[in-house]
């Protein structure tokens, strides 16, 4: 006997049929997009080397323990440790190893370009960036001061200070520094040029900023190359604590410094400038992770994606339990909720990879794990990627069969869709923790 269907039910079935067709088209498109994106390289290695491997670094100023920086090593998944195996913590803002004195820069008082006394106390209250040069330099000093000038221009709307400290006070008098400041068009109300007794300046740089500095006193020394010094610009917070070092010859590092300096001044991380998005790393500098060039909202997306995968896992398991207990309506609601969660995940996933490429030129984060965990990670990743491309199509067909009341066909496909969907959701969370927490890689 043919079953008669009332008009409202026919309308509902037609509506669900149209929805199913729409979901099918959407699923085919999104599966293709996922496949294309996930086949992109996991990440591109970025050059390079430490600025100097033999600098003498005072790890614990209070204990007076001097070690050679070449003895600092990176322990996988742990970070940087000293020669005693003691873990050096990371700075929460810069992510760099917090090797500088926790109590801040020791007291000093130098003279600026106008003959005024400037001390560490007078600099407190505002974050500042400080570089070390000498005006007669025929080496990298012009590049260092040029980078500082660019930093000054890009932070002029913010309440921050810049400091250039001369390492050649015998020649760099206040009058000389005043002319030097004019040469670079410096606004000396916010960019101080300091000079002071050479022994005090060099001691401050070596023991507080932990940077190399020295004078060549040999008879063979060359004019304009009498001093050896770092090209790093140091970031100091409003309390006088050093927070990180950034190579002034590397535009990428200076872009990160600008953003950290503004963050310290305002409490809000600024968006990258348009020109910073196109930065290419120079050679022979410390590696900068691509994520450091991302705005804060983009950095949160991997964690959000992991949370969405975790939520999908819970919904899938709960939905399975409900159908086993015969709670069909609850099962239906949970499966639809799982599908919508996966749709939101897909949107966040696509936005993250678009932003990552737009801001850094990178298509993904590089996995830093070594040893046996590396093939394990890539085995999980490859199967995750392959099956993730199938999930939208399988899920949409399975759901559409249920909406049409094709229960037997729905069950036949569900036994395939469920374990694949569950595997993709679980491994999505696992990949996130392996990539961002268990093996995040060494920080500069």
TrEMBL record:
Keyword terms: Copper, Disulfide bond, Membrane, Metal-binding, Transmembrane, Transmembrane helix
S-S pairs: 137-141
CDD domains on file: SCO
Domain Thioredoxin: 99-266
GO MF annotations in UniProt: cytochrome-c oxidase activity; metal ion binding
Gene Ontology cellular component list: membrane
Short name of any one Pfam family annotated for the protein: SCO1-SenC
Biological process terms in GO annotation: respiratory electron transport chain
Official protein name in the record: Thioredoxin domain-containing protein
Native species: Planctopirus limnophila (strain ATCC 43296 / DSM 3776 / IFAM 1008 / Mu 290)
